[in-house]
Amino acid sequence: MKNKKIKIAYKIWLEKNGKPILGKGGAQILEAIKTEKSVSKAAEKLGMSYRYVWSYVDRMNTILGEPAVKAYRGGKQGGGGANLTSQGEQLLEKFKQTEKHIKEALTDKQHSKV
Q1: Angle CA(29)–CA(39)–CA(71) in degrees, nearest 5?
Q2: Selection from 66, 54, 71, 114 nearest residue 91 by Cα
Q3: pLDDT at 9
Q4: In 3D, which of 81, 78, 62, 60 has the Cα closest to residue 70?
Q5: Which residues sit opposite 69 in a β-bridge?
Q6: pTM score, two decimals?
Q7: Under a CB-based contact definition with an 8 Å cutoff, are residues 46 and 53 in contact?
Q8: Nearest 5°: CA angle at 62, between 56 and 66?
Q9: pLDDT at residue 88 above 90?
Q10: Which domains does the chain have, with CATH numbers?
């Protein structure tokens, strides 16, 4: 490529029945929930509002028809929390693997002579 300022860019997301489930931001949300074990702590870590993060998770759960994130309320014993379900773990892993394969393919393409 003669013009070094031109590069290949892409966006990926996972869909179910044509409805988007998980993109890069959603993957960051799932990763933060997995790490923080809390929707509110994940939102804070990402600099997002709790309402936005919870809406994203709720929409994802609705489209999937089963939860990707399971939240539980706190009580007298302590605060609540959240965890990824096996569905959420699988979605996150599928997104990360797909992103990795695309990056590898584009890196190979950009370094090869066209």
Answers
A1: 115
A2: 66
A3: 81
A4: 81
A5: 84
A6: 0.83
A7: yes
A8: 115
A9: yes
A10: 22-106 (1.10.10.10)
Q: How far apart are CA 82 and CA 71, in angstroms?
A: 4
Q: Maximum Cα–Cα distance for the chain, whole Å? A: 65
Burial of 82 (0-12, 13-18, 19+ CB in 10 A): buried
For residue 77, the 8-state DSSP code is T
Bridge partners of 15, per DSSP, are: 20
Query: Rounded distance, CA 18 to CA 106, Å?
Result: 25
Dihedral (C-alpha) 29, 31, 78, 67: value to the nearest 10 degrees?
A: 70
pLDDT, residue 12, reads 93
